[in-house]
């Protein structure tokens, strides 16, 4: 709580950070809007339908980023010796890292996603039912779970890499970017990688196919969307295997 309150001490700085984060996400949405302004269908989806994909991505990634985003800071923790101080405590390393700081400004991306979803839903033609409500809730839960696993996976890779943030960003933030787009616009190798290795399309596009009752393209059939829990388990198994292997490999200055 003290860390959360400290972010509110300099309120002008906090507000500017929130605004900056919000408009960064808004610029990403403008890219989709511009594409659909010139062509009414983008990857088989209209603007309201594609907006649902963007909205689910923004909320899921924003929540995961707020809690697990500091896993990106692992190289800094190692260089500053802070990681060793974590390892000497009788607590697991991941909970210590994610509670070392929680950036409230990242909620701005969540807010953008909620606003986009609220605007797009009335125009998307969804036949609402308890099942469809469950699909939305499931998409947010499992989407957040998968993105959180990607942050842990990226952190685990840092034990083998020197200044490897750019490499890990390729599947963490690359996965976020892919999750904002309709699946058919992706090249086949990218579609396969970001579905069956890094399951980013499972977080957004596949649930939207279920909501809209669309069959989906090759390699991304609608039925895969119902397997989101299995994809979430796979993401965390992969992340924890890499993370634990990295922690066992790590040797700090103190041995």
SSE blueprint:
Layout: H1 2-7, H2 11-38, H3 47-68, H4 74-80, H5 82-87, H6 93-98, H7 107-124, H8 130-157, H9 165-179, H10 188-197, H11 205-212, H12 228-249
Element pattern in H and E? HHHHHHHHHHHH
Molecular shape = globular
Total discrete domains = 1
Indicate the structural class: mainly alpha
Number of helices: 12
Q: Roughly how many Å apart are the termini? A: 33 Å
Mean pLDDT: 84
Q: In percent, how helical is the residue content? A: 55-70%
Rg is 19 Å
Low-confidence stretches: none
Beta-strand portion reads: under 5%
Largest sheet: none
Number of strands: 0
Structural summary, described in words:
With 255 residues, the chain is mainly alpha-helical. It contains twelve helices and no strands. The protein has helices at 2-7, 11-38, 47-68, 74-80, 82-87, 93-98, 107-124, 130-157, 165-179, 188-197, 205-212, 228-249. Helix 2 (11-38) runs parallel beside helix 7 (107-124), helix 3 packs antiparallel against helix 7 (107-124) and helix 3 (47-68) packs across helix 8. The longest helix is centred in the first third of the chain and has 28 residues, at 11-38. It is globular, with a radius of gyration of 19 Å. The model has no long low-confidence stretch (mean pLDDT 84).
């Amino acid at each position: 709580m003290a860390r959360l309150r400290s972010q509110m001490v300099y309120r002008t700085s906090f507000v500017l950070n929130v605004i900056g984060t919000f408009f960064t996400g808004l610029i990403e949405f403008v890219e989709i809007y511009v594409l659909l302004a010139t062509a009414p269908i983008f990857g088989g989806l209209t603007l309201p339908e594609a907006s649902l994909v963007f909205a689910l991505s923004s909320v899921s990634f924003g929540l995961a980023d707020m809690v697990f985003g500091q896993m990106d800071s692992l190289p800094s923790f190692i260089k500053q010796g802070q990681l060793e101080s974590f390892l000497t405590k009788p607590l697991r390393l991941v909970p210590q890292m994610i509670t070392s700081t929680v950036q409230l400004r990242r909620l701005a991306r969540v807010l953008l996603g909620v606003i986009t979803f609220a605007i797009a839903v009335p125009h998307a033609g969804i036949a609402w039912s308890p099942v469809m409500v469950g699909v939305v809730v499931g998409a947010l839960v499992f989407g957040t779970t998968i993105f959180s696993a990607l942050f842990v996976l990226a952190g685990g890779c840092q034990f083998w890499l020197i200044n490897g943030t750019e490499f890990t960003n390729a599947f963490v933030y690359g996965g976020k970017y892919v999750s904002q787009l309709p699946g058919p616009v992706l090249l086949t190798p990218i579609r396969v990688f970001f579905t069956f290795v890094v399951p980013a399309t499972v977080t957004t596009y596949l649930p939207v196919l279920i909501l809209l009752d669309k069959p989906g393209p090759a390699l991304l059939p609608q039925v895969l969307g119902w397997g989101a829990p299995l994809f979430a388990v796979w993401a965390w198994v992969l992340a924890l295997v890499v993370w634990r292997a990295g922690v066992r490999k790590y040797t700090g200055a103190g041995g």
